[in-house]
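The material for today's practical consists of a large collection of protein records. Getting from the letters to the tokens is the skill we practise here. To make this concrete, we reproduce a full record directly below:
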Amino acid sequence: MQLAFFNTDQLRAVLAHLNLAPAHDKAGMIVQVADAIVRKQITEDQAADIAKNTVPSPKVGVDGEVRQQILDSNAKVHAALHDVQNAQSAINRVRDAVEGKLADIDTAFKRLDDRLSAKVAGLSAPDASHVSAEIQASVARLFNEFRKEVPVERLAEIASAVPVFTVNRAGDLFPLTSYQHNGQDVDFSDLQVAVWNDPEAPALVDDYVFNPEHLHQALIALDDPLPDNIWLAGERGTGKTEFVAQLAARLKRRLFRVNFDEALERADFIGGNSIADSNVVWKPGIITQAITHPGAIVLLDEIGFARAQSLAALHALCERSPHRSITIAETGERIKVASHVVFFGADNSNGHGDSSGNFAGVREQNTAFLDRFSFTLRFEYLPPVQETDLVSARTGLSTKASAILVGFVNVAREKARMGLLTQPPSLRQLFAWARAVKRGIPVRTAFTNAIVNKFPADCETELTTLFLSHVDEDLFKQSL
């Protein structure tokens, strides 16, 4: 169909049917109608029918030049329409080619997926032991190469600086992890605690009886790279030292213990100069060694007997600060406290001296030093039933015989509180008395050797009187 032969009235009629505003000239209107046909908004036959039924507008004569321009425009429109049709055909061919390629790619992927699935299905599960052996061999090879280049001293330093620990439930490590407080049950068996697996941790004593409240507080205090220090107060023989040792044993942490007395000098526990091979060298003390060992527990035992000038060196070490350290005056070296290192102070008093008069030499501590210990745990003797069971389990003495010894010791302790004895019999003395009796020593002889002879002479009469009134030797022999 030749749109060029449509007159302007016919073209306007077709565009009006399509709801399109006509262009200003015939050439523009021809392009509009041709575009609509290409877009399939109208067919050629529909356009012809509309043109046929269009009433022509009155003719307006045009001169020859205008007519020629119209004919030229019609030719251009015809050429443009031809180009549009050719372009549409090319687009259709490209679209068909792309769709064909996509179908081929989809088929190829399906074939590949089928082949891979078949191969995966044919694979067997890896041998775990073989994989583990390969990993260990690779690690060993790499470490051997590293070891050739690094001095042994440096390897030891690296090994000691890297903490290796596992995490366990408190209930899996300690025999009793619950208690009552103000009528409420407190259960900390699910508390996660770090076990350091140090081969030089203290030996485990299975029958040590932990006070669960003290244990709970201690585990919370230790649960931090910068732990809270703890002060343990209580009479001798109440288990303060053993509490720390058995805590370290179950957490597999190394224990460094310093026993203080009036003669202990700073150089004894911090370190000092000495002569080696005719040279003056500085040798670290036990505390200086301890603070470089991650996870170490440092027990300052009988700290109430230490002199103030000796303890001054510990202030910076016991400070709960990421900068805690000590500077060695002799060398100028600054030694930092390693991660998780904690200090326990054990004393017969809570740091404010002894008001009972039973512990001569116990000093009142500097408030600034006491402030370095976040918590104070007060230790008491075990209840008689528990102490009896412990003596029996530890020494092999019968429960009845152990109960008789424990009964005497508790009366003697009460006399000590009243000031009638200089000090109470300790649990260690009770164990010694029971062991001697178990091995065949008469109960009166064992009592004299384990207890009476350890007290001042002016206590002998009071102790002997207590023994005669509370220990029936015939009944005791029957209970063995």
About this structure: The chain has four domains: 3-91, 130-161, 166-378, 384-479. Residues 4 and 78 are 7 Å apart (CA to CA). The longest helix spans residues 64-122. Residues 384-479 form one domain.
